[in-house]
Amino acid sequence: MPRLTLRFYRELNDFLPKPLQQRDFTRDFVVLGAVKNIIEAVGVPHTEVDLILVNGQSAAFDYHPEDGDRISVYPLFEALDISSITRLRPRPLRESRFVLDCHLGRLARYLRMLGFDCVFSGHCADQRLVEISVQQERILLTRDLDLLKRKALTHAYYVRAIRPLKQLAEVVHRLQLQNSFAPFSRCTVCNGTLTKVTREEVWSQIPPTSRRKFTEYCRCEGCGRVYWKGSHYKRMHRLIATVKGD
């Protein structure tokens, strides 16, 4: 029976049982198929992988290893200089456009607050999420491991954290988004872009107390919702600074 030695690095260990984490281990296979299938059989989604080395040489997902091969698997955004070898993707996945599954609504709102283009629906089938990710070149954010193993997916990330604010910090850190913020440029509700308007243009939509206190307003080009720098504005600025690490 063919046997392979495998080693997964950094956050890829999140998908492995503790006895297999942070070390070499061997695994027997009845048939040695493509290395992509071998990696996912161990439990690691292919969308989390950016580099595979077989006996020290870079390999694509469709490479078929042989008995006795050593396979080293590295995650997305690994701080490693691999400029001289072939990555699994011809361009980085650090696009600031996202589609999120139905469990990540609060995260979608936080990302929109930072200015990121996020598609979210509380009722979207898995296949449709995959289609949106592929057709619109959006990174799929999800907590569904089975969804991440869809063959068509190339831009996806498994969100580890449970609480929305921790999810936000995780996604910003792992996808290195700190320098891509455009705060308060998108509607947190519908994802539309915000445009500055005069107080007179939105007079009927502003509470009387706010009319007296504020002079600067923005309106969503999608749903028409009006935004102004109310009491929540300073709290949101502090949150943004914390997430960015300022």
UniProtKB/TrEMBL annotation:
It holds the Pfam family Ub-Mut7C. InterPro entries: Mut7-C_RNAse_dom, Ub_Mut7C. Residues 1-81 form the Ubiquitin Mut7-C domain. Residues 97-239 form the Mut7-C RNAse domain. PANTHER family: MUT7-C DOMAIN-CONTAINING PROTEIN, MUT7-C RNASE DOMAIN-CONTAINING PROTEIN. This is Twitching motility protein PilT. It comes from Microbulbifer hydrolyticus. The lineage of its organism: Bacteria, Pseudomonadati, Pseudomonadota, Gammaproteobacteria, Cellvibrionales.
